[in-house]
């Protein structure tokens, strides 16, 4: 039987995952397809039962179901337990459905070379920040600060993950010179979200990495501001592609070409 994979979420029409996975499947001559499925409010359990029943080999999970799907799976990998959310489901040979989270590691892979990046500043303390902070902890990083509009939310994250230090935006600005990497994890700067973060990058360390997890637009106002300084900027496409590549490797046993995909998507979105 032809294998098939899916992505579930709501809305799902604009997901780039079907394009990405279909391209990788065909470029590796794997006879399978990948389909987007919109799951309506209150229908998640039925949707998961249907995916299992209809022989889906694995699927991605996106907003708003990353947390809600957990009770409907047979096992949750350490990555998803730590983050408290699942973005990838894998069907094992014995027919069990296991939840993973590839978002945080996907983000870190998108950074490429990270030697000499010791001190990390995370801006924002929502779900996306959580995945990234968890991945840095797992990889053995030690110096990480989380700056957030609501400091108590950053404190909560620090406490739950037992990692990092919570600070305000003002404190982040005062300490800016000490960070090797600054990561914007909030939805600010996304198309239709014109608000920008109340942080000024003046004084940022030379050759620091400045990353934004937003990829639409490719250059957010935050990255535009960063480009005024002598830093390396990274947009959110790499995270999208690497979280997908990790999922692909769990399903198919091979790692797809990520640089080529980043280039293709950059052309499409640019
Ligand atoms: P996620 O999908 O990552 O959970 P979210 O819930 O949409 O994202 O956004 C959460 C993050 O964006 C939080 O860090 C939030 O700050 P608060 O904890 O103070 O709410 C941040 N955020 C959202 N709107 C913001 C704004 N106008 N200014 C600064 N931060 C903002």
From TrEMBL:
Enzyme category, top tier: oxidoreductase
NADP is among the record's keywords: yes
GO molecular function: shikimate 3-dehydrogenase (NADP+) activity
Enzyme Commission code(s) on record: 1.1.1.25
Key words of the record: Amino-acid biosynthesis, Aromatic amino acid biosynthesis, NADP, Oxidoreductase
Catalytic activity: shikimate + NADP(+) = 3-dehydroshikimate + NADPH + H(+)
Record note on quaternary structure: Homodimer.
Purpose: Involved in the biosynthesis of the chorismate, which leads to the biosynthesis of aromatic amino acids. Catalyzes the reversible NADPH linked reduction of 3-dehydroshikimate (DHSA) to yield shikimate (SA).
Similarity comment: family membership: Belongs to the shikimate dehydrogenase family.
Name of the protein in its database record: Shikimate dehydrogenase (NADP(+))
Gene transcribed to yield this protein: aroE
């Amino acid at each position: 039987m032809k294998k098939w994979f899916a992505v579930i979420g709501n809305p799902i029409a604009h997901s780039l995952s079907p394009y990405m996975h279909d391209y990788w499947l065909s470029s590796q001559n794997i006879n399978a397809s990948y389909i987007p499925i919109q799951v309506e409010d209150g229908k998640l359990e039925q949707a998961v039962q249907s995916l299992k029943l209809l022989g889906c080999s694995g699927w991605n999970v996106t907003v708003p179901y990353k947390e809600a799907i957990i009770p409907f799976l047979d096992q949750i990998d350490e990555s998803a337990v730590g983050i408290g959310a699942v973005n990838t489901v894998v069907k094992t040979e014995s027919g069990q459905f296991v939840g993973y989270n590839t978002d945080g590691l996907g983000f870190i892979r998108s950074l490429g070379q990270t030697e000499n990046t010791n001190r990390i500043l995370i801006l924002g303390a929502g779900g996306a920040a959580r995945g990234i902070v968890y991945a840095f902890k797992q990889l053995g990083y030690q110096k990480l600060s989380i700056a957030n509009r609501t400091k108590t939310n950053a404190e909560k994250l620090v406490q739950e993950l037992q990692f990092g230090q919570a600070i305000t935006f003002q404190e982040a600005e005062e300490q800016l010179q000490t960070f090797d990497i600054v990561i914007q994890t909030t939805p600010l700067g996304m198309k239709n979200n014109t608000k920008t973060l109340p942080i000024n990058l003046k004084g940022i360390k030379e050759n620091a990495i400045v990353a934004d997890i937003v990829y639409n637009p490719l250059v957010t106002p935050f990255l535009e501001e960063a480009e005024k300084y002598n830093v390396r900027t990274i947009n959110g496409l790499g995270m999208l592609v690497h979280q997908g590549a990790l999922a692909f490797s769990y399903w198919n046993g091979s790692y797809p070409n990520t640089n080529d995909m980043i280039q293709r998507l950059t052309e499409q979105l640019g």
